[in-house]
Specification:
5 helices, globular
Length: 100
């Protein structure tokens, strides 16, 4: 699928897709003979994961860490728990500041 279809299916803008590529969160896609970006279902799933994390206000650094763990076969789930626990701590602090 081309970038327009990927953006539509993930409910984001094509520029957002390009941004995540530049940031290294989304791997650069193959190119067609006409030099169009060509994405697959795996890249769509990864983009949806990134979008869900952003909806939870996770930082790009936190998302990057989770993706590295995901990409490492046989990674320890405790690392994921540590990242999520730290994020929950940040959210709790923010809620406290907002209610004060």
């Amino acid at each position: 699928m081309r970038i327009g279809e990927l953006a539509k299916r993930s409910e984001c803008l094509p520029e957002t897709v390009r941004y995540y590529e530049r940031e290294g969160l989304l791997p650069r896609p193959e190119r067609s003979e006409g030099n169009y970006r060509v994405y697959d279902e795996g890249q769509l799933a990864r983009l949806l994961f990134i979008r869900n994390c952003r909806a939870l206000e996770m930082s790009l650094g936190e998302i990057r860490t989770l993706l590295v763990i995901k990409d490492c076969a046989g990674a320890d789930c405790r690392e994921v728990c540590a990242v999520l626990d730290a994020h929950i701590g940040h959210v709790t602090e923010r809620i406290g500041r907002l209610t004060a």
